[in-house]
Amino acid sequence: MNATIEQLAATLETALGSGSVTADASALASYNVDGKSPAIFCAPKDQDEVSAALRLCVEARAGVIPWGGGTAIRLGNIPRQADVILELKRLNKLIEHDDANLTASAQAGIKVVELQQILGQQRQFLPVEPPRPDLATIGGTAAANINGPRRMLYGGVRDLVIGMKVVLADGQQIKAGGKVVKNVAGYDMCKLFVGSLGTLGVITEVTFKMAPIPESAATLVATGPLSRGLQLVDQLMQSTLLPAAVAVVSAEATGVDSVRPAVAVRAEGFEDAVARHLRQAQELAGRMGLRAEVLREETHRSLWEQIRDFGSSGEAVAYRVTVPVASLADVVETIDRWSRSERAARFVAHAGSGTVWIASAADPAGAAWFPRLTALAKEQRGHAVMVAAPPEFKQGVDVWGAPPESLSIMREIKRQFDPHAILNPGRFIAGL
Amino acid sequence: MSRDVLIRELRQIVGDRYVLTEKEDVIVYEQDASILQVMPEVVVLPADVGQVSAVVRAARRANVPIVPRGSGTGLAGGAVPAEGGIVLCLARMNRILEIDLKNRVAVVEPGVINIDVTKAVTKQGFFYAPDPSSQAACSIGGNVANNSGGPHTLAYGVTTNHVLAVEAVLDDGQAVWLGGRVADSPGYDLCGLFVGSEGTMGIVTKAAVRLMRTREAVQTLLAVFDRMEPATQTVVDITAAGIIPAALEMMDQLTIEAVEKGKPVGYPRDAAAVLLIELEGVREHTERAARLAEEICSRNGARQVRRAQSEAERQLLWKGRKEAFGALGALAPNYYVQDGVVPRSRLPEIMREVAEIGSRYRLRIANVFHAGDGNLHPNILFDMRVPGELDRVIEAGAAIVKACVAAGGSLTGEHGIGLEKKAYIGLLFNDDDLEAMARMRRAFDPDGRFNPAKVFPTPITCAEMRRQPAKIPAGLWI
């Protein structure tokens, strides 16, 4: 930094008003990033104030940590510099809900649960399900690219976000995309910010596609030996069924079964279509010798909430392995074998996207998972990410894994958008 | 480097046969399917990624631009060499390199024709979802450049939702994979940025695209309306009812007239509009969705709702739609197609406005378009031989685009900005927005070597630009 904390706090206070800025250590105690405690907290009330704050921070060369609900704050490498928390919670308004167009725009700081309540009044919802929607914000969900279990039917964050407003590191306010579902005017700049973990700009508004709330939804849970569960998944993937989600959960990963692994098949849509999915999945499960049970209403909802929140609440270490979908069975079996033989861990695997989430305790055995998962993922042409871990686990590793061959372009993009590296410095891939 | 030295070098790279410089050879590359023309200086047809790299390096040494070209079906002048240089035609790189059904991925070269991807996997029960209306001719490389859409992208998404990764030759001549074979590759979403960049960031040499499982059931409806208004309202109501059809297309009276004048398919000639509604999914879903759609049509006063009872009847219903564009030739010697988008909720009012613009400029406009996602295709009919008429057509086109933006929409839904709409991009994005895009451009292509003078609202400097309606080959449809 080229200003003192006191100086920066004072200029921010002048720009944002005294109630919006504090340098009080006790107020900042809960805004810890990988063991680093920023010295200044500011909460701008609108996009202009976000811009003003960033302009002052870039002048002072202060490291800025954009903060939504804090639910993904454990993601990323240890920041090189963390001086200012820029909290978006006051940008919490719905801008527009065009229900006839199935689109909505909201400010970045709105909590996902609140947004869903508003959309639900028109029987619509945003098919993105971050863990802890009572805390997670829509802007944070987009920045961290948090996808939920139903991605296989509805698409991921990058598919659903169609427009954005962003403030760049130097305070420049820009718009990306628009409010229509089909749009090829100019570059698709939304893609730049989805998943960039706030390292290129601060998202202040998001426009996204919505889906109608289905008239019916239910889940078939099949329990039994893991290998047979994985065969069921394979059969489902080969069928013409279109489940909303298919998850493989280890024993104890959810409340569904404490001894045996299970496969959860979520169907939603018209009642007849849901019945058909349940019937066919049940038949397949029966043929595999799995015990099948249909969950509805509360038990259905609760299971998927557990799956959604897996690895996010208090777990010491969480990893994410992503492989081509046909390799998922091999990877899950390997992880299960390791878990039973030496390093206890629980997992949830999403068949549609080839993603496995693994959670384990913060002990040396938990730390040893990362190199092995990385090697396993690489064998299958995938990747492994250390999603959450205590800072000492992150020392000396890149939590994102080995950088891709296109790293030099990524570096150049970072240089173009944040030349002084003030936004989440060091937290992204290869220390970007 | 002199022009002769460059051409000698290019011949060494790709072979004499694949460097075209004579007027009678390059003239076929002077235009795409837009109305803009510039005669290329040199056209190069590489055979593989190594040759593409070498051509890019040679162009860099000679300091000349490179304009990538696929099949030339683009509608915005994207493949027109506005500032001269090398037209790099990727048509020879047309191999399907890998089909991995278990992982639902195909890896193809950029010159592969869109429909050939689906054809290669149909028997196994798969398809490639983006289906631009020119899919029998357009290439995957061109689709990647333009983030192409099509009728069935309503439910399945456009090209960007189906491209996992691209191998691209960048400004230094290196081939680099952007994106990955699996979801959520760590780092910035370079593949997502590259798709839709209209050839301004590099040359696609391979694309890994998603394959989808063929749906088990399909229902196709044709709804006939006596007035335009209830037809557009039906589109709004179907979306609002939570039905996402695989396709939801509209044709107006002028289009119907053209279709029935040419090869009749049985659309009622006195109808003001017809809607073609296609529903896909599991049988139980399509059955119920079709019934709901029929109810909505009837409630809005559809004169007739016909459900295809066989695959042959379904093909017949689609035939009119597919041939509509070509059929317009029966009404006027020339036509100019626009590509504006509005929020679906604004469809009724924008269609009124398009009709008004037509009468204001004394031009007939035939509408055949992707109503389900609010993507208009007003075809302005005219006669090139009438002095001044093309100018009026372009003014009317601009008025339509402006009306779409004013309604909260976009300039272009699937054709791209190219040369054609670069003067209008400022309607949608201010200088700061465009400057951010320019930063992206600089990160990939600091010298502005790839497809200069496109997308951004810069004046064109060197070459002479002419306007001439394209001769669209029969069978192409939009």
What top-tier CATH class of the domain at 3-91 and 438-467 in chain B fits best?
Alpha Beta
Poorly predicted segments of chain B: 473-478
Q: Any idea what the CATH architecture of the largest domain in chain A is?
A: 2-Layer Sandwich
Please estimate the helix content of chain B: 25-40%
- Which chains share the greatest interface? A-B, 81 and 90 residues
Q: What's the assembly state of these chains? A: heterodimer
- How large is the share of residues in beta strands of chain B? 15-25%
Explain what you see.
The complex is a heterodimer of chains A (432) and B (478). With 432 residues, chain A is an alpha+beta fold. Chain A folds into 4 domains: 5-89, Uridine Diphospho-n-acetylenolpyruvylglucosamine Reductase, domain 2 (2-Layer Sandwich), CATH 3.30.43; 94-212, 2-Layer Sandwich (Uridine Diphospho-n-acetylenolpyruvylglucosamine Reductase, domain 3); 216-298, Alpha-Beta Plaits (2-Layer Sandwich), CATH 3.30.70; 316-394, Alpha-Beta Plaits, CATH 3.30.70. In chain A, 34% of the residues lie in helices and 23% in strands. The longest helix of chain A has 17 residues, at 271-287. With 478 residues, chain B is an alpha+beta fold. In chain B, 33% of the residues lie in helices and 19% in strands. Chain B has a 7-stranded antiparallel beta sheet with strand order 16-13-15-14-18-19-17, with helices on both faces. Chain B has a 5-stranded antiparallel beta sheet with strand order 6-7-11-9-10. In chain B, strands 1-3-5-4 form a 4-stranded mixed beta sheet. In chain B, strand 18 and strand 19 (378-382) form a beta hairpin. Chain B is globular and about 70 Å long. The chains are: A alpha+beta (432), B alpha+beta (478). At the A-B interface, strand 9, strand 11, helix 10 and helix 16 of A face strand 10, helix 7, helix 8, helix 10 and helix 14 of B.
